[in-house]
Amino acid sequence: MISCISKRVKTLLFELFAAPIIQYKQPYTVIDKHIKPAVDMLNSIDGVETIASCHGHLFGHIEAPYIYFKAPTDTAAYLHKQIWTTTQHKSIYWVIEGRYNSECELCFSLRSPPCELAYYHFFSRLRLFGYRRLELEQSMLELAQLIKSASKTLKQPIGDKY
């Protein structure tokens, strides 16, 4: 128990003091390390192109985790169904929503509503993005595995998907 608390406190201190410095020195083209596996899995799907992403930050450029991407509508719908049905009862769940970009192209945002809600409240953000950071990172790893699993199904002939 003490080991777990110690690890959480170390993570919180890292997110408070070291992570913002690393973030400011990192070029925009570098994908945040905890969301990168999910980004890579999305990019491995035919027709999917990621545009932007973030693994969530407590300080510095404060942001909730997300992946913004282009994809065929049926692909995004299938991914959403697989991700939502698996994560909907977890404390950190994920959804995919469509929105039009400035060129009137339909794009999709893969995001976590609980993380976005925490983003707006300092102590909630401190708890989720700092103290419970390891849980958030585990959720992003699980997300990558869900995308990988769904991508295998997406590669099957259309009649075999559903």
Can you characterise this structure?
By secondary structure, the protein is an alpha+beta fold. It is globular. It has helices spanning 2-25, 36-43, 73-87, 113-119, 122-131, 133-154; strands at residues 49-54, 66-70, 95-100, 106-111. It has one domain: SSo0622-like fold (2-Layer Sandwich), CATH 3.30.1960. Helix content is 53%, strand content 14%. The chain has six helices and four strands. A four-stranded antiparallel sheet has the order 1-2-4-3. Helix 1 packs across helix 5, helix 2 packs parallel to helix 6 and helix 3 (73-87) crosses helix 6 (133-154). The mean pLDDT is 86.
How do you describe this structure in short?
The protein is built from six helices and four strands. The chain is an alpha+beta fold and 162 residues long. It has a single domain (2-156), classed as SSo0622-like fold.
